[in-house]
Write a structure and sequence with these properties.
The chain is α/β, with parallel strands linked by helices. It has 5 helices and 12 strands. It has 2 domains: 95 residues, Translation factors (Elongation Factor Tu (Ef-tu), domain 3, Beta Barrel); 127 residues, Rossmann fold. β3 and β4 form a beta hairpin.
């Protein structure tokens, strides 16, 4: 891990509550798809965020869900906004995490995220697309409502470049006026409906800790092997 200063290239809104941050580090940084960084607020206040960009990208992308004013992530957005106005760098620590993509495996891949946990798996499928991976890859992204979606077309386009991959977005709650024709319900239940047995898969999970805990238990009952399931949340649940 190293401490690096970064310039803020852009800070934009993906939805009213999700922000996209692009950072340019002042030196080369190395990480593996699926790792995260700490955003340094102060010497004793360091906040983790999954890296959404591929390791091949010279810019570091973060996707920050800030749903409540003065919340933990909103304070980071406000720091970024003030640093951008003042044209000042921000500081990160990179890389961190043990749930990175296992590059030596050829097993089929199941990448599953809820909400802004999407940034964790985005780094992986972007990297796999750049490397022209031949592995079977299935990407599931669960969102609470249609209004929470973003970059669906861009994601589908990237995954379509992989020869053995598919993308399955899932909306939990669909309103009667929503024009949604895709999968609905709890994302991991959709996975278990679609895949008879998960034993052969390398499984990568991201989302709220309680969600990941439920998925882990249900997936094991559905054949998944614990030694082939990866999530940073596992260290805390």
């Amino acid at each position: 891990m190293k401490t690096v200063n970064c310039q803020i290239v852009s800070l934009t809104s993906l939805t009213p509550h999700v922000f996209k941050v692009l950072l340019k580090p002042n030196e080369k940084v190395d990480f593996i798809a699926g790792q995260y960084l700490n955003f340094v607020m102060s010497s004793d206040d360091k906040r983790p965020f999954s890296i959404a960009s591929s390791p091949n990208n010279e810019l570091i992308e973060l996707q920050v869900g800030a749903f409540i004013a003065d919340s933990y992530p909103m304070q980071v957005i406000e720091r970024l906004q003030s640093a951008q106005v003042a044209n000042e760098p921000v500081t990160i620590e990179i890389p961190l995490g043990n749930a990175e993509l296992r590059l030596d495996s050829e097993r089929p891949l199941l990448l599953l995220a809820g909400g802004t946990g999407f940034s964790y798996i985005k780094s992986m499928f972007e990297y796999l697309a750049e490397e022209k991976s031949q592995r079977p890859i299935t990407v599931y992204w669960g969102l609470r409502e249609l209004a929470a979606t973003y970059e669906l077309a861009e994601t589908a386009a990237i995954i379509a470049t992989l020869p053995n991959a598919k993308f399955v977005p899932v909306i939990e709650n669909v309103g009667e006026n929503d024009s949604w024709e895709g999968k609905t319900g709890l994302v991991h239940q959709v996975v278990m409906d679609d895949i008879i047995n998960l034993e052969s898969y390398d499984i990568y999970l991201a989302g709220r800790f309680e969600m990941v805990g439920v998925i882990r238990g249900d997936f094991v009952k559905h054949g998944a092997l614990l030694e082939h399931m990866y999530a940073d949340a596992f260290a805390f649940i």
